[in-house]
Amino acid sequence: MLTVENTKQWLFTFADKIKENASYLSELDQEIGDGDHGSNMVRGVEAMEEKLNESDSSDVSEVFKTAAMSLLSKIGGASGPLYGSALIGMAKSAGEDDQDLATLLQAGLEGIQKRGQAEQGEKTLVDLWIPVIEAVQNNTLTKESVQKAVEQTKPLKATKGRASYYGERSIGHIDPGAASSGYLFEALLESGVVNG
Amino acid sequence: MAKHGIVLVSHVPEIAEGLTALLKEIAKDVSITFAGGTDEGEIGSSFDKISEAVANNEADEILAFYDLGSAKMTLDMVMELSDKKIHLLDAAMVEGAYTAATLAQGNTSLEDILNQIELLIVK
Ligand SMILES: Nc1ncnc2c1ncn2[C@@H]1O[C@H](COP(=O)(O)OP(=O)(O)OP(=O)(O)O)[C@@H](O)[C@H]1O
Ligand SMILES: [Mg+2]
User: Which of A144, A164, B73, B123 reaches 20 to 30 Å from A117, CA-CA?
Assistant: First the structure.
């Protein structure tokens, strides 16, 4: 069950992971994009940490909203509106009665898809969120299953975002957005919201 | 002031600015505002800059053009939070905006402007 405490913990852990792996994320983006995914995400999560520390949110919905606005306004690349929309979707869902984690994440995925119009198989972070949500529903989410889902973006050909301009050459590389979302769900496991 | 305004959003400040100069030459009475690059002036998109370009546009109704991915998605989010009437157009940016500027300057109807731009949709 999400509380203000563990939700913040989740997001702070995510921020740490992004900062630790920033150069790896940019390397991935160098292969099939413009090489800025790591620095974009770091700008966003640093602003998010600052805002979360300043605010004394009284409910989970507000925590997600605060995080959403920071990521949206500071990332500066496609992942800004995408993570922003995901978290706004989650904020709305958290505000409703009997929310469970899978429903909440599903609302996040819908936010991403509404914004970016990507379907499964287009080599975007959508390809990470879909199997992760399935795993949450089946109580089978583990660090290994998250990493496997990240790896599974490798053989896909990108048809959305910057990577789509690479055509066939996008095949064989991990999608940077899927990798950063992988850290979001590893953080979810580590913050004790779900046990994997 | 013409009824329809134009908002240009590019990843690069100079592209947004340069395209504005191109349009202003033939559309002196059209309100044209732009957002280019990130908050730091680097390559990317800025929610704040785009919000400002929309807020500062003097027209009742706006035609918006963009270059790549995040420019569109960020514009999309700004539109959701703004109560201005904005048409986000998936046209080739230079040609689409030039067409819109030319026709808006002549006070062409929205329907006719959109029909003309329809021929330039590329994304
Ligand atoms: N339309 C989309 N739908 C879903 N995800 C997308 C879409 N476009 C891009 N992405 C995701 O965003 C990631 C890239 O994020 P990044 O922060 O590097 O933005 P960018 O592509 O450099 O932004 P820009 O659009 O400004 O060029 C990709 O790896 C992909 O997962
Ligand atoms: Mg990038």
Answer: A144
Residue numbers in B near A176 (CB within 8 A)? none
The verdict on a CB contact (< 8 Å) between B69 and A73 is no
Model pTM?
A: 0.97
Give the residue numbers spanning the domain of B85: 4-120
Q: Which residues pair with B64 in a beta bridge?
A: B7, B88
All structural domains of chain A with their residue ranges: 4-190
The alpha-carbon gap from B8 to the nearest alpha carbon of chain A, in Å, equals 16
Query: Given CA atoms A54, A60, A63, A65 in this order, what sign does their dihedral have?
Result: negative
Contact call for residues A66 and A55 (beta carbons, < 8 A): yes
Partners of A116 on chain B (C-beta within 8 Å) are 73
Q: What is the pLDDT of residues A116-172, one digit of tens each?
A: 999 999 999 999 999 999 999 999 999 999 999 999 999 999 999 999 999 999 999
CA distances from A18 to A69, A129, A181, A196, B67 (A): 18, 17, 10, 20, 28
Superfamily of domain A4-190: DhaL domain (1.25.40.340)
Tokens of B100: 């819109």
Q: Report the domain count for chain B.
A: 1
ipTM: 0.95
